[in-house]
TrEMBL record:
Designated name of the protein: Cytochrome P450 85A
Example of a GO MF term: monooxygenase activity
Entry keyword set: Heme, Iron, Membrane, Metal-binding, Monooxygenase, Oxidoreductase, Transmembrane, Transmembrane helix
Record's bilayer topology term: Single-pass membrane protein
Upper classification of the organism: Eukaryota, Viridiplantae, Streptophyta, Embryophyta, Tracheophyta
One example of a Gene Ontology biological process annotation: sterol metabolic process
Membrane-crossing residue ranges in chain numbering: 6-24
Length: 465
C-alpha cells in the first residue's frame, strides 16, 4: 500500500510539473495582440505533433484558432498563416522586413551563402549568379543535351525488372544534377557523394540538436564531407589545363564573368542547386509514375504526345528545345502532380521588426510559416480539386499565372530552377513512357508529410512497351 501511494504521488508530481511547464511556456509567449494558439513544450514546442500529424495538425489548429495562429515548431516561435491574401502579401514584400526564415538546421547544413539564407543585395547577386547557370540559353545550348544523355542511360536496362521507383528517381535527380554541374558520371566520386548527400537532405529538416546519432549531427557531418569533395574538385580544375563546359566552369570563370564568387560561395551554390532540384524533381517524377499508373486515360494521352515526338526523330536524336515546347500535356501532368501531391507544403519567412498584419502582432525575430498546402485543394480555384485532372491546366491557361499559384514559390523567391526541373522531369517521362509499360507490385504505402515519400519504397514491375 505504501509503495502504491509513493507511485501515485510521483505520478501526481510529474503531472503537476508538466502542467506547470506547459503553462510557463504559454505565459512566456503571451504578448498582447499575438495570434491565438498554443506553444507546447519549452525548446521542443509542438514539433513532434507537427511532424507526426502534418496536415491534420494544421487543420485542427485552424478549426480552433482560425487561419492565422501561433505555435512553436522546428525550434522557434512561429506564426502559421493559412490565409491566401496574407500569404501573397508576405511572399511579395521581402523588402518590408519579411526575409527568409528557414530552420537553423537548414541554414547550418546548406551553408551561410545558400541563396535561401541571404537577402537584400546579397540575395540579388547570388540569384543572378544562379540564373546565369540555368537560363533558357544555357538549357538550350548545354544542359538539355546532358539531361538527354543521362536519361537514356539511366532508363536503359529496366526491362523485365522490379524496380523501386522512389530510389530510381532519387538517384536520377542527384546524378543528373552532378552531370550538369561538374560532368560527374556514375563512378567513384558519385558513389562516395550519394550517401553523404542523402544524409545532408535528412538533416535539413530536423531539430538543431548536435548529439551523436541525431539527423542534425549526421547531416552536418555530411556537409563537411561534401565541402571537402567539392573543394578538392575545384583545386583539381584549377591545376588542370583542360577546358570544361559545365556549371562549375561557369562559376569558376574569372575573365568576363559578371558574378565573381569565392570558393565558399561556389560550393554553397552547388549544394543549393543539388538540394533544391533533388527533392522536387525526384518526388514529382515518382508521383507522376504513380498517378499515370492509376489513371490510364492520362497515360494514354501522355504517351500519344511522346510517341508523336519520337516519330519525327531518328532513334539516336536527342530531345531538343522545340520538342520540349511541344510537350504541353506533359507540362500539365507535371503541374497537376505537383498540385495534388503537394511536393512543397509551404515557405518560411522571418520578421526583422515588430509588425502588424491582419490585426495581429508579428514580433521581431519570429518565423512565419506561409502554409500553402490547402490552397492546392481549394474548390474555388480548382474544380473537383481531389481529382487528378491534367486537362484543367490546358482548359484554363490562367491557372499557371493566377495569384495563388505557389507550387514553385512566389515573389522574388520563385524557384529559379523551375524550367530546368520541368525539362528534367519531361525528359524522364519521355523515355519512360515510350520504352516501358509498368504495374505496381502493391502493398507500398505513401506518406504526404513532412515529405512525400514511400517509407518502404514504391515498387513497380517493368516490361517493354
Amino acid at each position: 500500500m505504501a509503495v502504491l501511494m509513493i507511485v501515485v504521488g510521483a505520478v501526481v508530481v510529474v503531472l503537476c510539473f508538466c502542467s506547470a511547464l506547459l503553462r510557463w511556456n504559454e505565459v512566456r509567449y503571451s504578448k498582447k495582440d499575438l495570434p491565438p494558439g498554443t506553444m507546447g513544450w519549452p525548446v521542443f514546442g509542438e514539433t513532434t505533433e507537427f511532424l507526426k500529424l502534418g496536415p491534420n495538425f494544421m487543420k485542427n489548429q485552424r478549426a480552433r484558432y482560425g487561419s492565422i495562429f501561433k505555435s512553436h515548431i522546428l525550434g522557434c516561435p512561429t506564426i502559421v498563416s493559412m490565409d491566401p491574401e496574407l500569404n501573397r502579401y508576405i511572399l511579395m514584400n521581402e523588402s518590408k522586413g519579411l526575409v527568409p526564415g528557414y530552420p537553423q538546421s537548414m541554414l547550418d547544413i546548406l551553408g551561410k551563402c545558400n541563396i535561401a539564407a541571404v537577402h537584400g543585395s546579397t540575395h540579388k547577386y547570388m540569384r543572378g549568379a544562379l540564373l546565369a547557370l540555368i537560363s533558357p540559353t544555357m538549357i538550350r545550348q548545354q544542359l538539355l543535351l546532358k539531361i538527354d544523355e543521362f536519361m537514356r542511360t539511366h532508363l536503359s536496362d529496366w526491362n523485365h525488372k522490379v524496380v523501386n521507383i522512389q530510389d530510381k528517381t532519387k538517384e536520377m535527380a542527384l546524378l543528373s544534377s552532378l552531370k550538369q554541374i561538374a560532368g560527374i558520371e556514375s563512378g567513384s566520386m558519385s558513389n562516395e557523394f550519394k550517401p553523404e548527400f542523402f544524409k545532408l537532405v535528412l538533416g535539413t529538416l530536423s531539430l538543431p540538436i548536435d548529439l551523436p546519432g541525431t539527423n542534425y549531427r549526421r547531416g552536418f557531418q555530411a556537409r563537411k564531407n561534401i565541402v571537402r569533395m567539392l573543394g578538392q574538385l575545384i583545386e583539381e580544375r584549377r591545376a588542370s589545363q583542360e577546358t570544361y563546359q559545365d556549371m562549375l566552369a561557369c562559376l569558376m570563370k574569372q575573365d568576363g564573368n559578371k558574378y565573381k564568387l569565392s570558393d565558399e560561395e561556389i560550393i554553397d551554390q552547388i549544394i543549393t542547386i543539388l538540394y533544391s532540384g533533388y527533392e522536387t524533381v525526384s518526388t514529382t517524377s515518382m508521383m507522376a509514375v504513380k498517378y499515370l499508373h492509376d489513371h490510364p486515360k492520362v497515360l494514354q494521352e501522355l504517351r500519344k504526345e511522346h510517341l508523336a515526338i519520337r516519330e519525327r526523330k531518328r532513334p539516336e536524336d536527342p530531345i531538343d528545345l522545340n520538342d520540349l515546347k511541344s510537350m504541353r500535356f506533359t507540362r500539365a501532368v507535371i503541374f497537376e502532380t505537383s498540385r495534388l501531391a503537394t511536393i512543397v507544403n509551404g515557405v518560411l519567412r522571418k520578421t526583422t521588426q515588430d509588425m502588424e498584419l491582419n490585426g495581429f502582432l508579428f514580433p521581431k525575430g519570429w518565423r512565419i510559416y506561409v502554409y500553402t498546402r490547402e490552397i492546392n485543394y481549394d474548390q474555388f480555384l480548382y474544380s473537383d480539386p481531389l481529382t487528378f485532372n491534367p486537362w484543367r491546366w490546358l482548359q484554363d491557361k490562367r491557372l499557371e499565372s493566377q495569384n495563388y499559384f505557389f507550387i514553385f514559390g512566389g515573389g522574388t523567391r520563385q524557384c529559379p530552377g523551375k524550367e530546368l526541373g520541368i525539362a528534367e522531369i519531361s525528359t524522364f517521362l519521355h523515355y519512360f513512357v515510350t520504352r516501358y509499360r509498368w504495374e505496381e507490385v502493391g502493398g507500398d504505402k505513401l506518406m504526404k508529410f513532412p515529405r512525400v515519400e514511400a517509407p518502404n519504397g514504391l515498387h513497380i514491375r517493368v516490361s517493354s512497351y
